[in-house]
Recover the amino acids of this structure.
């Protein structure tokens, strides 16, 4: 069977996958964001997940036929009509009350339903709770297409394992879990991925098993980080260096190397809520999972309180103090600001009556302003340059994200006489306090 693949959603997950599949298959990349599609067709990815060189080598100028390979990006529904494999890679966020939001997934399912044909396969990669594919998404595809599931069309689930900003563990180098709505379709789905994933594949027995495997991967990390965050709170009270403790404990062969920090992003800070909601629908209250989430979600406020506490100890006036926040993306060396917990620190600091300036050479200032209403600078202006709000001397400097640009930054030039440096990531030398 010849395959033509359509990738629905060209973000951090969809674009690297589309580029990779385009080395072996004809691929149409679809996104409703016309500006994003135009940018990609020009050969540039502003998420920086795919280099311009790789992207340009994959792109072709027209919708590919079944006997050609390459990537064609489009925002037009009709360009999806010839595909027979549809892979959905849209975000699955939570709302302000931490309840799963399936709207992007439902909309993408409706899109596929409009072009689906007999014999086609719909594969979901978005992180969901067990049962979401077959109970929430497939009925939408059936309703829109008029086709019957597992008779006229089939489904698969292969959870994404993209690590934004990681140039070592790229999509083809990460083992891929696959599954299908029937045993036969599972083999077909597995073979499609096996053709491009050099790290290999693991065929799960059912879609629900694959869904559950994905959601517990990040829940496990969330719980482990919550544990070391709690240790940090305890050891800070004891005036013990948490990082030194973890380094010593890490000499044992089976000690897990987790570090304290802010847990944001599109996966670890979100996925546990998907599993928790589904568990609650079955009448079970997941105590450990939600306790871990509560603790990790409290870390922004905790970091802010520790900054203020350290300032007070050095007799620095808090009211109207000037603080420089280094970084606002959710992780280092990556432009992704989705669900970043730096904003929690900034908000909590402002509640104490201080002024906060944010410097991040990786973040898009327009995106930060749109998403969070915060002003972010992509560079530190030299002294005496005209700038309406940015100042050059601070009462406190907080390293929130360990971007490579910050590691050799001369902080002394940015400090007032008694200024403190607070290191959230534990990567700087000679700081006043760290998490």
């Amino acid at each position: 069977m010849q395959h033509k693949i359509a990738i629905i959603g060209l973000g951090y997950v969809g674009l690297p996958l589309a580029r990779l599949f385009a080395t072996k298959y004809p691929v149409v990349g679809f996104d409703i964001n016309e500006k994003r599609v135009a940018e990609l067709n020009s050969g540039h990815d502003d998420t920086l997940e795919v280099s311009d060189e790789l992207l340009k080598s994959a792109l072709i100028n027209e919708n590919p036929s079944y006997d050609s390979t390459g990537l064609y990006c489009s925002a037009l529904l009709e360009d999806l009509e010839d595909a027979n494999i549809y892979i959905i890679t849209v975000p699955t966020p939570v709302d302000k009350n931490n309840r799963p939001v399936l709207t992007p997934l439902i909309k993408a399912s409706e899109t596929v339903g409009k072009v689906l044909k007999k014999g086609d396969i719909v594969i979901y990669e978005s992180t969901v709770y067990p049962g979401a594919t077959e109970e929430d998404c497939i009925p939408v595809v059936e309703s829109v297409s008029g086709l019957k599931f597992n008779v006229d069309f089939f489904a698969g689930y292969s959870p994404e394992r993209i690590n934004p900003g990681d140039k070592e563990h790229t999509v083809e180098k990460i083992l891929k879990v696959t599954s299908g709505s029937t045993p036969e379709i599972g083999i077909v789905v597995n073979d499609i991925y096996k053709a491009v994933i050099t790290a290999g594949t693991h065929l799960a027995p059912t879609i629900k098993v694959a869904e559950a495997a994905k959601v517990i991967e990040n829940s496990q990390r969330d719980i482990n980080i919550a544990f070391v965050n709690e240790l940090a709170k305890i050891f800070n009270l004891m005036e013990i260096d948490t990082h030194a403790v973890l380094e010593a404990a890490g000499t044992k062969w089976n000690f897990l190397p987790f570090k304290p920090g802010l847990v944001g992003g599109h996966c670890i800070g979100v996925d546990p809520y998907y599993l928790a909601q589904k568990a609650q629908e079955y009448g079970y209250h997941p105590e450990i999972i939600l306790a871990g989430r509560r603790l990790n979600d409290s870390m922004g406020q905790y970091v802010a309180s520790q900054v203020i506490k350290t300032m007070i100890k050095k007799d620095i006036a808090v009211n109207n103090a000037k603080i420089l926040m280094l970084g606002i993306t959710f992780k280092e060396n990556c432009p992704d600001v989705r669900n970043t917990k730096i904003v929690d620190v900034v908000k909590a600091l402002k509640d104490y009556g201080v002024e906060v300036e944010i410097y991040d050479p990786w973040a898009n200032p327009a995106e930060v302003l749109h998403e969070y209403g915060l002003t972010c600078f992509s560079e530190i202006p030299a002294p005496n340059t005209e700038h309406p709000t940015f100042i050059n001397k601070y009462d406190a400097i907080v390293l929130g994200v360990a971007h490579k640009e910050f590691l050799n930054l001369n902080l002394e030039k940015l400090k007032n006489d008694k200024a403190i440096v607070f290191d959230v990531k534990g990567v700087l030398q000679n700081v006043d306090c760290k998490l």
Summary: The first helix runs from residue 14 to 21.
